Amino acid sequence: MDSLLNNLDPELRNSVLSIVKKVPESVSIFQKVYDAGRTSNNEFEPLRKSQKLGNESTSEESIDRSSVIFGLNDVSVLSPLRKKLNLALHLSRGDKTPTLSLLRDGRQELAIRDLGKNITMAVFLPVAEKMGNVYLFITYTKSVDDKYGDPILITLNKESVLQQFKQNGIIENEIGEFTKCIEYMRKQAILAGFRITDPFFTNSSQQSPSFHVECHRGTKEGTLYFLPEHLIFGFKKPILVFQSSDIESITYTSITRLTFNVNLVTKEDEKFEFSMIDQSEYNKIDDYVKRKQVTDKSMSEELKAKSNYKNQQAAQGENNEPSALKEAAQLMEGGNEGGNLNGAEFDDDDDENDANFEEESGSSDGSDESGEEEMNDETADREAMREEQHDEQHEMEDAEAEEAEDLEQEQDGGGDADDIPIELDDDDDGDDDEGSGVEYD
């Protein structure tokens, strides 16, 4: 009972005490009502003494818990301010119109009303390299009192959001899919008059799949999101948002083996360069450009034309200029007519070729005489070769004759004279030298 009374403002506490004095049994009822209220709305801070309920306060600095459509506790807000805040989708106190608020200690830090008109885009986006987190990104025309104008960027931890949904009885304890949380938040947004798109998580069957690439803008590293109707670069200030219909052209520049740059030009002639994009992302970006019918004014076609020109020049060079092998073959055919390059055979008496050789090698600096000397040396070499071959032939014949003579002598000395017929010289002139019975050529 004390915890109940301590969290009520003095006027309300006196009213409760007066009822309890008259009906003591009402103490347990008040306590149950208080506990039930805290359990069903535990994403908000307990009521402070300065807070009022119902229509007793028209201040936009506090909200009525009974008007809350949906809320999340302790979310990380990155823009337009950086701190842990509570997110609430609720009805305003005055005219009960849907309102989106970021709260701290129950007080509004930022509020947007007329959500159907003021919110221009709301989307869930993946966090690069952090699979456990999701961005909620919202752009709007104006906030209450025009206090802020930069987009709202909130980081949602999937596990934390799942636990809050289960504690509040929004989803069953057995459910572990974060997509169920996304589906619920989208339905609540529709009730409030605006839509939160989800191009990455639950709409995998869409015809134009969304994607994101890592890149730089100047020295700032960030993520470039390609969405069905928008391009977003973030998330360091300033966050850039483009409608795809407002893009005049895209240019690919600084193309290397690993990376390339994208230069974006809007229809208002604003230029933005996104650099150091991985080459593996080119096809996806190029497909996006073609789907959106954005003009590609890059140098790629010109570079292709230059490349084709070089290829054509190379092809013409192959057709018009003989290769080194062909050129060498032509030179050999033109300079060695009538002879074999390997020196296998030469015509010994080719006077006509000798004359042509002398004519072609003639010059005014005395090269005729050197040519004649070279020919004489060549002729002398041929003659020496013939003589050497002739001497070898005679040596072979002499060797064969000696072998025949030795064989015959062996037959005369080692065999029976009666068995071997021998013709005797009938002449008695005594010239035994010439009648040896062996003939020589």
UniProtKB/TrEMBL annotation:
A GO cellular-component term linked to this record: nucleus
Residue segments, region Disordered: 299-441
Biased composition (Basic and acidic residues): 379-393
Keyword Transcription: yes
GO molecular function: DNA binding; histone binding; nucleosome binding
Start and end residues of each Histone chaperone RTT106/FACT complex subunit SPT16-like middle domain: 210-299
Keyword Calcium (UniProt): no
Extent of Acidic residues compositional bias: 345-378, 394-441
Cellular localization per UniProt: Chromosome; Nucleus
InterPro entries assigned to the protein according to its UniProt record, in alphabetical order: PH-like_dom_sf, RTT106/SPT16-like_middle_dom, RTT106/SSRP1_HistChap/FACT, Rtt106_N, Rtt106_PH
Feature: compositional bias, Polar residues: 308-322
Domain of life: Eukaryota
Record's keyword terms, sorted: Chaperone, Chromosome, DNA-binding, Nucleus, Transcription, Transcription regulation
Pfam families with a match to the protein in the record: PH_18, Rtt106_N, Rttp106-like_middle
Protein name: Histone chaperone RTT106
Organism: Zygosaccharomyces rouxii (strain ATCC 2623 / CBS 732 / NBRC 1130 / NCYC 568 / NRRL Y-229)
Top-level taxonomy: Eukaryota, Fungi, Dikarya, Ascomycota, Saccharomycotina
